[in-house]
Amino acid sequence: MEQPLPPDTLISLRAICLSREEQSILENVSLDVSRQEILTIVGPNGAGKTSLARVAAGLIRPQSGKILRAPGLKIGYVPQDFPTDPTVPISVRRFLDLPHRLNDTEALTALDLMSAAYLINKPISRISGGERQRVLIAMALASKPDLLILDEPSKGLDPISENDLYARLPDLRDRFGFGVLMISHDLHVVMAATDRVICLNRHVCCQGTPQDVGAIANFQTLFADPESAHLALYHHRPHQHAPHGGDDSNHANVD
Questions:
Q1: Cα gap 57→181, rounded to integer Å
Q2: Cα(first)–Cα(last) distance of the chain, in Å?
C-alpha cells in the first residue's frame, strides 16, 4: 500500500525514471520537499537537473515512478531563461499578467520583492538577462506559491546580485512560508541559502546538509571519479556511479 504524504511534505518524487531517444536522463530518483524547506539540487552539466525540475513542476511526464503532491499544491516555476521576441512590444507590467491578471499594486509589490520595481514600464525584450530573471521570480512570487521551483535562478546575474538573491531567498521563504526546490551548479555559492542538498548525476549520488556535502574534498571530482562516490553518501547505501560518470559531452540539452 502506498504511503501517504506526511503532513508537512509538499511534493514527493518516488523512483522517477526518465529517458529521451533511448538516452537515460533520470534513474530511480526520489526526493521530498517539505513546507518552508530549501532543497538544492547540484550536479554537473548533463546531470538531469533541469529535467528533474520540469518533472516536479508537472511539465514533463516520466516513464516510470510516482509524483505525489499535497492537496491544492500551487507551484511557482522559474526556468533558466524565458526567450522574448524583440519585435513584440510588451512591457514588464503586461508580461506579469501573462499567467493571471494582477492589479497594479500586486504587480509593483511582486517586483519590489526582487528590487525590480524600476523595471515595471520597460519593454521586457530590452532588459538584461539578470533583470529578466528578477522579473520571472517576481512573477512566480505573485502567484503566491506553496512550492517555488527555481532552475538556476542566478543565471545572468552579476556576483553582487547573485549574492543578494541567495541572501534574500530565506527571508522570502520565512515571510511567505513556501518550500523551495532550487537547481544549481555550485554548492558553495548557495550554501547559506540551503537547508538540504542532493547531488545528482542522473541518479542521486548523495544528500545531506550543505556542511556535510561541502566538506567533501575536491567536490567537483565527485562526479568524475566513480571510486569517490562512497565518500559522500549520507542517506544511501554505497554504490557506484553509472559508467557515463560525469562526462556529459554527448548529452546536450539534458540538464
A1: 10
A2: 33
Cell of 225: 571519479
Alpha carbons within 13 angstroms on the beta-carbon side of residue 99 total 18
Beta bridge partner(s), residue 116: none
CA distances from 112 to 13, 48, 188 (A): 33, 33, 27
Predicted confidence band of residue 159 (pLDDT cuts 50, 70, 90): confident
Q: What gap in Å lies between CA 196 and CA 234, rounded to an integer?
A: 12
Please choose, from the candidates 236, 217, 243, 214, the residue with its C-alpha nearest in 3D space to the C-alpha of residue 228. 217
Q: Nearest to residue 42, comparing CAs of 207, 200, 245, 233? A: 200
113-138: pLDDT as tens digits: 999 999 999 999 889 888 999 999 99
- Indicate the domain borders of the chain: 1-31+55-73
CA 207 to chain centre: 16
Residue 100 buriedness (CB in 10 A; 0-12 / 13-18 / 19+): exposed
User: What residue type is 127 in one-letter code?
Assistant: I
Tell me 240's DSSP state.
P
Q: 53-63, pLDDT tens digit by residue? A: 999 999 999 99
Q: Cβ distance 138 to 110 under 8 Å?
A: yes
SS3 of residue 31 by DSSP: strand
pTM of the model: 0.83
CB 163 within 8 A of CB 153: no
Cα–Cα nearest to 148, from 75, 58, 81, 67: 75
Distance CA 40, CA 199 (A): 9
- For residue 12, give the C-alpha cell: 514527493
CA-based nearest residue to 46, from 26, 61, 67, 16: 26
